[in-house]
Amino acid sequence: MRILVIEDEHHLANSIKKGLELDHYVVDVAYDGNQGYDFATSEEYDLLIIDIMLPGLNGLDICRQLRQQNNHTPIILLTARGLTEDKVSGLDSGADDYLTKPFSFEELLARIRALSRRPKESINSILSIGDLQLNTISFQITRAGNQITLSGKEFALLEFFLRHPKQILSKTQIINHVWSFDSDILPNTVEVYIRNLRQKIDIPFPNLPPLIHTVRGFGYRLGN
Hints:
Blueprint: E1 2-6, H1 10-22, E2 26-30, H2 33-42, E3 47-51, H3 59-68, E4 75-79, H4 84-92, E5 97-100, H5 105-116, E6 126-129, E7 132-135, E8 141-143, E9 146-148, H6 152-162, H7 171-178, H8 187-201, E10 212-215, E11 219-222
Parallel strand pairs: 1-2, 1-3, 3-4, 4-5
Antiparallel strand pairs: 6-7, 7-8, 8-9, 10-11
Helix pairs in contact: 6-8
């Protein structure tokens, strides 16, 4: 799951990014409204966390402009204001949820999990193909009932595949979604992680059909 954090308080933004990455999320950060809006309109995200008081475009304006463009990515607004009218303004601008600073990181995680269960494009907490299952809440992965342990990046890669079953995904698509914007990733890095994933979900199950397929010249596909 890829998240964009738009927050001008660098310490808070970086703390949110670090905490979310520990929970297997891929996180990009923008420190002003204009940059954040550019990220939100040029990259694909599963959720946006936006501070209201931002230099450049403020959070309410970002919400309104995204919704006017029929961008329905879930949005959590952050603000130091706790007045009812401010909350109403935030929700009226198109936000899905609202957190008043200071907030606990556990509460932010709970709000993210709740929004991820809403039917944006039929998003479920259990993703599966054949006998492979991934739980986005408990982070458990099984194949044919057998528990599989993945690293955080392997988990993000498999989740991306499972959200796009039987689709050919190019290395560029994988890099853009599984790694954050500021990561220095080469195409052969994707090959390494694909190999690692095969060693965990395909090779240990020789009696089952392989799930990860290389499509020469195009990319990779999960499922037949």
